Automatic annotation (TrEMBL):
Residues covered by the UvrD-like helicase C-terminal domain: 389-656
Protein name, as recorded: DNA 3'-5' helicase
Cross-referenced PANTHER family: ATP-DEPENDENT DNA HELICASE SRS2 (PTHR11070:SF2), UVRD / RECB / PCRA DNA HELICASE FAMILY MEMBER (PTHR11070)
Lineage: Bacteria, Bacillati, Bacillota, Bacilli, Bacillales
Transmembrane segments: none
Domain of life: Bacteria
Binding-site residues, ATP: 126-133
Molecular function per GO: 3'-5' DNA helicase activity; ATP binding; ATP hydrolysis activity; DNA binding
This protein's record includes keyword Isomerase: yes
Keyword annotations of the record: ATP-binding, DNA-binding, Helicase, Hydrolase, Isomerase, Nucleotide-binding
UvrD-like helicase ATP-binding domain location: 105-388
Species, as recorded: Brevibacillus fluminis
Length: 732
């Protein structure tokens, strides 16, 4: 059905007025859209693969117009989809070949060759979806079953524990339990740590592992070493940044003594260098260690202790390293020590999927493997078994723009193709609504929720989709959620003002916003006592506090005027008023001035996101109620759901996974590619933009059948520019 009634006027959905969809959704939420035939409420459905239309709400009685809906949709499906800005077909710039001779054999000839090449160094360069996992498991089974290798002398290193479990799971049918148990499998960290615990149990107490950043920060503060920092750094953000630079250096085996003779690029690196020896000293004093120390510890053990090294070298006769493109220097040097002298070292990876440079990974090791091992064989797996040809073509067109890579001629195993789309919602909220409408449509047509993934570059993209999925009661798993959005500091301030406008006696809200009014937390007890003495709400006490300076008095006068005015407004209008007249935006900017530019921008973006979320609500009460529900949802943990659920995750986390349908969020400059990479490019450095392109490549190649790419026209209230990657991959 293409028509509905709004305030007795007829709306006819045509390509010319699709830009009104966000507004009609708003009316829809208030139940103002009616069926022109039966006057019952209808709802707007504006997904991606179908044209927008109206349907009766579930509770409506049957109406003759229902039949026309099915007819209209069938017509749309049959007709060519118009290429307007509602959505466009995503066609690859370069087409790729399909595999000419398909066989039903479990392994393709090149995969077979990789399985049977067991002696000496071997580099398996494997394109996305080319069957790395299949080859690794088949190779392990071949070594053990056919060649009679003792499984205890085979080490298989995977990038995640999940991948190690998957490998073991697949081998379960082929190996005996004893053989399976004998295998040395796991991540670098888990294998190296086991060795350290075995060889040097007194030096590595698992209780003293600094698992998270906050534990490291706590150690720094409590050990007192920060006082020795010159120039001093105490802000949590700066210390965290310094710690992550230190971690990258450690993974590159750059110890403090190596760094003091090396020119450093940025002020952040200078701070990190000042902190580095102090952090190491604080750890050593308390016999603490972090994850990077496990790697360095194992490397140094093997390098310095000949007896230990010989023991492991004679025990481990065959090594396989998965995701080799993401190896770092310490890991690589240690692997070389394990592999010598026979060097039956098989490394498998895709240089196009190297996405962990910020943790010290370096694709140069995969690119330079044949130089380090001149006798190495190289086998290239170029057939993509996962994705339909157009998806392989999109990835291929995109990644060809990178310079530091091995060229590959990717082919697709599959013949039949599907349709991929770009879609252009007004903003991030509408992007989420369109995706959720599309998912609802696909679920109604038999798709399985766990075969759909919504991928994002950075966490701030996730909130709207998570909220829309929750509202639509679609089961979802949001992996790796960091601090819930509504608990972020700037967001708490905005919400605090709204809460106080509804209830000036809200103690939690007032405590939250005190800093924005330039009142110290130490005044809290005085505020409470005064409120009791004067019998007035807490917020009204503020102007009566003794010793206020004149700028504070002006600020508080404005604050109380705002509290008076705000209850008359919608939540979005109220926030606008608070940001501008209440000067909250200025305060947030000032407060974050000292922080790196991107962090400071992130705090103002949070305010803008809060405004975007508020726009969907008519009253402050309903918005605050919604926020409470979202916070409860965060606490109850939607991810623990056992039923099949739509996967919402970062591209980094999606590596190695596959889904029938992938939705990619926010393909705009500054999001993907990330602003950081664009900054680097402005300074003439290409590495970061190449890494962003690889990230995009990883994201595209997770899709088996369908890819939907969102390009919001506005993000965080600012006009966007389409990501450069779109033009690189698509023939528009
Ligand atoms: N010879 C083959 N015949 C049929 N299907 C295959 C074959 N090899 C691999 N596949 C299938 O192709 C898909 C991709 O394989 P796999 O996940 O091992 O790829 P990958 O190289 O690890 O991919 P990526 O690096 O992109 O994560 C899987 O669904 C796998 O079962």
């Amino acid at each position: 059905m293409k028509t509905a009634l709004l305030h007795t006027k007829q709306i006819q959905l045509t390509a010319d007025n699709y830009d009104q969809i966000a507004y009609w959704r708003h009316m829809d939420r208030q139940g103002k859209l009616l069926c022109p035939h039966c006057s019952q409420p209808v709802t707007i459905v504006a997904g991606i693969s179908t044209e927008p239309h109206f349907v009766h709400r579930k509770e409506a009685a049957a109406c003759e117009a229902d039949e026309t809906i099915a007819l209209a949709l069938a017509e749309v499906a049959a007709a060519q989809v118009a290429n307007h800005d509602y959505r466009k077909r995503l066609v690859p710039r370069k087409m790729i070949q399909q595999l000419a001779h398909k066989s039903e054999e479990p392994l393709h000839p090149e995969q077979e060759r990789a399985v049977h090449s067991t002696e000496g160094p071997l580099l398996i360069l494997a394109g996305a979806g080319s069957g790395k996992t299949r080859v690794m498991t088949a190779r392990a089974a071949h070594l053990i079953q056919e060649k009679g290798v003792d499984s205890r002398s085979l080490m298989m290193v995977t990038f995640t524990t999940k991948a190690a479990e998957e490998m073991k799971h697949r081998l379960r049918g082929q190996l005996s339990p004893a053989q399976l148990n004998g295998l040395i499998t796991g991540t670098f960290h888990s294998i190296f740590f086991k060795i350290l615990l075995h060889e040097r149990p007194g030096e590595w107490d698992p209780q003293r592992l600094l698992k998270q950043d906050w534990l490291k920060l706590k150690l720094l503060r409590e050990s007192g070493v920060l006082a020795q920092m010159d120039p001093p750094v105490t802000s949590e953000a700066e210390l965290s940044q310094a710690l992550s630079i230190i971690s990258r250096w450690k993974n590159e085996y750059l110890l403090p003594e190596h760094l003091s003779i090396r020119p450093l690029d940025t002020a952040e690196e200078q701070s990190a260098l000042a902190l580095y020896p102090l952090y190491e000293e604080a750890k050593q004093r308390g016999r603490w260690f972090d994850f990077d120390d496990m790697l360095i510890g194992c490397y140094q053990l093997l390098r310095t202790d000949e007896t230990v090294r010989n023991r492991y070298q004679s025990r481990i006769r065959y090594l396989m390293i998965d995701e080799f493109q993401d190896i770092n220097r310490v890991q690589y040097e240690t692997v070389k020590l394990f592999a010598a002298p026979e060097n039956n070292l098989c490394v498998i990876g895709d240089d196009d999927q190297s996405i962990y440079a910020f943790r010290g990974s370096n694709p140069q090791y995969i690119l330079g493997f044949s130089n380090d091992f001149p006798t190495a064989q190289t086998i290239t797996l170029e057939v993509n078994y996962r994705s339909r040809p157009s998806i392989v073509g999109l990835g291929y067109s995109l990644i060809g723009n990178n310079q530091a890579r091995h060229a590959k001629k990717l082919k697709s195993f599959h013949g039949e193709d599907g349709e991929n789309y770009l879609f252009y919602p007004d903003d991030e909220e509408e992007q989420a609504s369109r995706i959720v409408d599309e998912i609802t449509h696909q679920l109604a047509h038999g798709a399985s929720a766990d075969q759909m993934a919504i991928l994002f570059r950075t966490h701030e993209s996730a909130r709207p989709v998570v909220e829309r999925l929750w509202e639509a009661k679609i089961p979802f798993a949001f992996t790796g959620e960091e601090e819930p959005f509504y608990r972020k500091q700037a967001v708490r301030w905005g919400l605090g003002y709204l809460r106080l406008a509804k209830n000036p006696d809200d103690a939690d809200a007032l405590r939250d916003v005190l800093p924005t009014l330039y009142i110290a937390q130490s005044q809290w007890n005085a505020i409470r006592s005064q409120a009791i003495l004067d019998d007035v709400p807490l917020a009204h006490v503020l102007p009566r506090l003794p010793g206020l300076k004149s700028f504070q008095k002006t600020q508080l006068k404005a604050f109380l005027a705002i509290l008076d005015e705000v209850p008359k407004l919608t939540p979005a209008q109220a926030l606008e008023f608070i940001y501008e007249d209440g000067k909250l935006r200025d305060y947030v900017k000032k407060k974050n001035k000292e922080r790196p530019e991107q962090e400071s921008q992130a705090a103002t973006d949070d305010l803008q996101q809060l405004y975007g979320a508020a726009k969907r609500h008519e009253t402050i009460d309903s918005f605050l109620h919604f926020v409470t529900q979202q916070l409860n949802r965060d606490r109850s943990g939607a991810r623990q759901n056992a039923e099949p659920s739509v996967q919402v995750m970062s591209i980094h986390r999606a590596k190695g996974l596959e889904f029938d349908t992938v939705f990619l969020l926010d393909l705009v400059e500054g999001s993907l590619p990330h602003e950081y990479a664009l900054d680097e490019l402005r300074r003439g450095k290409r590495d970061a933009i190449e890494e962003e392109r690889r990230l995009m490549y990883v994201a595209i190649t997770r899709a088996r059948h369908q890819l939907f790419v969102g390009i919001p026209q506005e993000r965080f209230g600012r006009k966007t520019r389409v990501s450069r990657f779109i033009k690189e991959m698509a023939g528009l």
